[in-house]
Amino acid sequence: MKIIVFGATGNTGRRVLAQGIKMGHEMTAFVRNSEKLYDQLGEHSAKHVKVIVDDIMDPVSVGEALAHQDAAIIAAGHAGQGEEFVRIVDNIISQCEFQPSFSGRVWIMGGAGLLDIPYTDLIGNNLPGFPPEYRNHNRNFERLQKTHLDWSIMCPGTMIDSREHADPVHLHVTTETLPIPIPETIKEYSETDIAGHLFSRLQELNVAYDDVAICMLDHLELEGAFKRKRVGLAYQSNITVR
């Protein structure tokens, strides 16, 4: 497939690029700094990537870059950038809508706080104690709900460099809800107590960057299982929920 990665030198984007090359896809990197990209990829991999160096906030440049692409993975920016982050995502999504030769398949990055908490009508990002900047992911989610595009939002917890597990692990993937077992009694908790419960279990949501990248690359087909879904990831464990 022809896949364009926005933010291809970031922690997530560069893993997406590297894994996509391994899978044999035609990868395009949209970046601000080509030297940084070449340093990260190495000479061999760099030969297999089309590089576009331009302003991610320029609608014309982004629109032209999307032409004839089968999928776009938006890994640019982060919630801490505030309004700039929201504008980056909105600009790319808008150009995905306007570019007639773009397929319409899009992945964007969110976070585990965007997922539904089972047995409640809550999401983590709206709970007391969660960093207010995380709500920028809520705004991007709202933007996607207004588009006709075939989108998915990847919602991992803390991403780590490698699987820090001695034994092989199974990746548990969910749609819309948190990927860890939640006790039904949580519906009786106050919002503050729910937040405390989730904070105490954050490590269960740690997931490797490469597993996040591979999951997105494995689900690029149009009309797939993750169409218009929030996607959660966690390593399956034997933790008993009380």
TrEMBL record:
Domain NAD(P)-binding: 7-165
Sample GO molecular function, one term: oxidoreductase activity, acting on the CH-NH group of donors, NAD or NADP as acceptor
A Pfam family reported for this protein in Swiss-Prot or TrEMBL: NAD_binding_10
InterPro entries noted in UniProt: NAD(P)-bd_dom, NAD(P)-bd_dom_sf, Polyketide_Oxido-like
Cross-referenced PANTHER family: FLAVIN REDUCTASE (NADPH), NAD(P)-BINDING DOMAIN-CONTAINING PROTEIN
Name recorded for this polypeptide: NADH-flavin reductase
Classification lineage: Bacteria, Bacillati, Bacillota, Bacilli, Bacillales
